[in-house]
Write a structure and sequence with these properties.
about 475 residues; alpha/beta; 7-stranded mixed beta sheet; 6-stranded mixed beta sheet; 15 helices; about 15% strand; globular; binds nicotinamide-adenine-dinucleotide
Length: about 475
Amino acid sequence: MSVTAEQAIRAAGDELQRLFLAQRRAFAAEPDPPLSTRRDRLNRLEALTERHEDDIIAAIAADFGTRPAQETRLAELFTVTAGIRYARRHLRGWMRPRRVPTPLYLWPGSSRILRQPLGVVGVISPWNYPFQLAMLPAVAALAAGNRVLLKPSELTPRTSALLEHVVAAHFAADEFAVVTGGPEVGEAFARVPFDHLFFTGSTAVGRKIAQAAAANLTPVTLELGGKSPVLIAEDADFNVAASRLVMGKLLNAGQTCIAPDYVLAPEGRIDALVEAIRGSAAALYPTVGSNPDYTSIVNEQHYARIKSIVDDALAKGARAVRLNAGEKLPASSRKLELTLLLGVRDDMAVLQEEIFGPVLPIETYATFDEAIARINARPRPLALYAFGGGAVERERVLRETTAGGVTLGDTLWHFSSEGLPFGGVGASGIGAYHGEHGFLTFTHEKAVFTQPRLALTWLLYPPYGKRFERVLALLKKLT
Ligand code: NAD
């Protein structure tokens, strides 16, 4: 490690330590914020989002090159305000202690679960939805009564700087604060002994986060990536499937953690599927280069990475279908047309790495069993999509494969249904959030047993003898 990197870690460490300790003290002074305080924090988050709508749209567009305001309004601003409103509406109910049944043998004692904030929570977020993926974990953590430190991505510097500025304008630093910087700051951040560390990003960095957090026994939520399959059954309506697939794939130009990554389609139907996708892509995005609705790739490295995935597949014998109406796409625009790859094999990067761009490999299957086996042979995906199939096939897909979440008959939308937990499984992540699941991620469910003045448990005390044996025999009968 270079001296500068070491210095950066140390410097970030000092600043982090200062903020962390300030938040710890503030939490100790108010370990169980009442409903009104939590609602006030959510109100401020909402005000921040609404007041700075134009600034957020502009910062994200500047970070990406092209990012339509509509995509930012839908996938970032609307999603965050919807999450805030849902939390605010349900918060009173989520905070209530739960009475649970007490077994007869502990009568007349009683049992309940107290939902307590954890303390100071760290959030590390990625660049692809730089506002939403930073804010939604903060919404859940603040609703649950915690203090929050956020480290957004260095790859969207304008949005991260804006976040730092607007959060500081709406929150005390010991309530919610933003620390900016790259992987060095991220490393220092992951070493802070938070009460919970919430990370969204790549599986490779997620492993490092888990290792750093283990040193402090800090519990982690890891929202990672992976290859999300789309299973198309023989009887699917190809036109409906194609338009929903293209929409899910080209939103944010494929730079979405739950974007459809690859397709499994029935042998013999590939031409029909390609034509349906071609029609949908042309209808949704008639042009690419000059189209303000079509997002750019975030930077040159990712642009080169996605091109190299295609080149690798072509060099190994795949065939590309480029859905481009003859436009020239200069590298400076960092726009890539939707490229279908046919004849793909497992030794190609396109079937090994998460694509995170507008490239869609299409594999074929001969039988439904084979399609399910292909999905199960790969690391567990963050999302799975299935089109067509009768009730039996749909049930088989749900029960015989494992994925973080599923949308049947469409793509992406399970993310937006607040009652559903959002998270991965296996290589695609640990833990979940959204709605009450997010509230519980940042909550300790404390077990409380209350023994009344009059209790019979003394019957099990020493000195052990006949009384103990008789009471234990009776307890066995009561269970
Ligand atoms: P990334 O892992 O490169 O970076 C994420 C964050 O981690 C950034 O803030 C970065 O600065 C920080 N970081 C980098 N190295 C670090 C280190 N050694 N220690 C601590 N922090 C470090 O991910 P990315 O490129 O920003 O995002 C893309 C990835 O995120 C994709 O794999 C995508 O699937 C995944 N993702 C997942 C979800 C989800 O909800 N599951 C959502 C969006 C993106």
